[in-house]
Every structure is written in C-alpha cells, then in structure tokens.
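Intended use. Records such as the LLM class flavin-dependent oxidoreductase entry shown here are meant for training and evaluating sequence-to-structure methods. They are not intended to support clinical decisions.
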Amino acid sequence: MRFFFFHLMPYADLDPDYDKIHPSSWVTLPNSYYDPAKGAALYHRYLDELEYAAELGFEGVGVNEHHQNAYGLMPCPNVFAGMLVRKIPDTAKIAVLGRALPVLANPLSVAEEFAVLDNITRGRLITGFVRGIGAEYHSLAVNPTESHERFHEAHDLVIAAWTQPGPFPWEGKYYHFPHVNLWPRVYQQPHPPVWIPSQGSRETIEFAADSARRYTYLQTAAPAATLFKTMQSYRDEAERQGYQASPDQLGWSIKIYVAETDAIAREEAKPHIESFANKFLRMPQEMLLPPGYTSMASMKGLIQSRKTITSGYRTMEQMLEQGTFICGSPQTVIEQLAEYQRRGGFNIVMAGLHFGTLPHALTMKNIEIFARDVMPALKSAVPGHMPRAAAE
C-alpha cells in the first residue's frame, strides 16, 4: 500500500453560521467572509503540514484545484507545488491532482508549468487532469456541455506538447496555436505520470483505462460501495482493452483520523469531520451537476452516489458506516484500510488527514500517528485476487 498526504486547504475560519443566509460555501458565498490576515496564516500553516508529512515518510504530498469557494483555497495548485519543491525531502513526490483543463483558457500554460515542476523536482512530479466539478463551471462561466470535448482536446494538446518535437501547429475545435514548442521539455520521459481523480463517471473510467494511456484512476468523494464498483469497472475496462490493470493504477482519496484509542479518535474528529461534510461540502445538486456536464447514464449513477454525501445533515457515524470516513485507533484504521484494499483492489491511498475545522495541533498529531503506527503495518500490503463477487 502506497501513502500520500492530501490537503484541500479550506478556509477553516469560515463563520459556521454562514449557511443560515447562504446555500453553499461555493460560487456565491460573498468573499467578505474571507479575512486576509487569517487566510495568510492558514496558508503558512497548511504548507507546514504538507512539509511535515513529507518529512515523516509519506511517498508524496498532494494538492488540488478549486475556484471561488471556502472549501479549498487552491485556485493555482502549481504555485503551492512550487513552494513545496525546495523544502520537502528529495525522496518525496508532489502530486498536483489536478488541473481542471476545460475551465482554463490556455492548456499550453498547464503544459509549461508542469514541465517546470518536473524539472525542478528532477522527475518527482505526478500530474493530474480533471474536468473540474460542476461548481467550477458556474464560477468561471464555462459551458458545461463542452466539458468533455474541451477536456479531451486540452489533454491531447498537453501530451503532444510534452512528447512531440517542436515547433508544430495545433488547430483544434477550441484551441489554436501556430507554434507549439515547449521550453523547458519535461524531465520524465515520455512525460510525467498522469493520475485522473474522479467522482466515478463512466466516461472518465473509460478514458483513464484506455490501453493507450493506462492512467492511474483515483476515486474521490464516494462511499465504499461506489469505490468497489468503480475499481471493478476500471479492471473490466482494462480487460476490454486487452490488458490486466495493476493495483498501482487504482487509488482512493479518503478522509482519515487516527488517535490513541477509538474513543479518543471519534471525540476529537467528530465536530471537524461534520463541519467538513455539512458546512464546507454543502452544495445544491444543480450546482454540483449542471445540465450537460455529464452523460445521462453517468448522471444517474453520480446522483445516487452523491445522495449519501450531500443530502441532509450528515453525522460522523453515518460517514463511518458509509465508508466516506475512517476513524479510530491505529489498529482499527489498519484493519479498515486492509479490508477496503482487499475488497477494492487498489494500492494507492490519498489520505486526507486534515478536514474542515480540524486544528493544527490535531492535524499534526494525526499525521504523526498515521505515519508512525499505520503506514509501516500496511506498506507491504498488496491486494490479492479480486473476485467479482467481492466487488458486487
């Protein structure tokens, strides 16, 4: 099992009563709620937490991209990756999960920024491409019906810029460049590894598992039942493509809290994981899945999955039962992760060890206990044969 520490960088000082006036912490929440002095302190604190995880032996650290919300203060994840590069150990990787290609005006800028990071890290960069959740299309005024086409063209342009000798012209439906001639070239050949985080759409799984790509698929924001289903869907698609998927092509992004005992862990985590689920993640369905954002088949599946994580007030106990949160003593967390790996067949764990309003001291404690007591017990763990019956 491979472990990465993932941070969302929320505005943890958000007024908890905002939802009495506003329906969501996304898109329409007035930025008057943001105090620059508090925000600056949070940024420095969050960078400290990422650096600490890298020092304690996580394979890498992960950042991501969201726009105009209190849920995640990283509209420019490459900036944060750049700040981390020179301070974390030279054995630790940096995963940018990921750039939201369809909502960005210039994919060549993404190709250039990733190429710089790949050189600075001397090949320790993991790149991520996403379409961006529906709220991003509201924030940046992009037509959601163009999401898939823009994503595929932008992706193809970035890969071409990384792998083809330049200069060459690019004439697509959305992007037009007379000269594609990337300086610097990427450090890793033919290009940095690509991971595809997703909520579980059928189209994304097919894209990632395609035999020409074989990208690592990272399941996000879903209950355990959805995790098992999407892991199996990826393996099935790989078989249709003529190869057997490796467990290293499958990962899970999951919020985790570990403490001395189950009772202590639950007491310490409860108010903060519930703030994450009910304050920061709060979003109307039409904001999450705008018309045209995904196919009808995927829409039905996503709506059903998201009901368990966006409908009504969610308690920590419900999240533990659904498998959207893991919490307990080191032994409890070890046993649960091992069982999820056995049933899901994945090797990569993107551990969200900070969430919501979890304070700095508890975050550092969580990172330390997880690195000291959980990771060593599971580093040699690999999924065994994954029969379809188990996934079902």
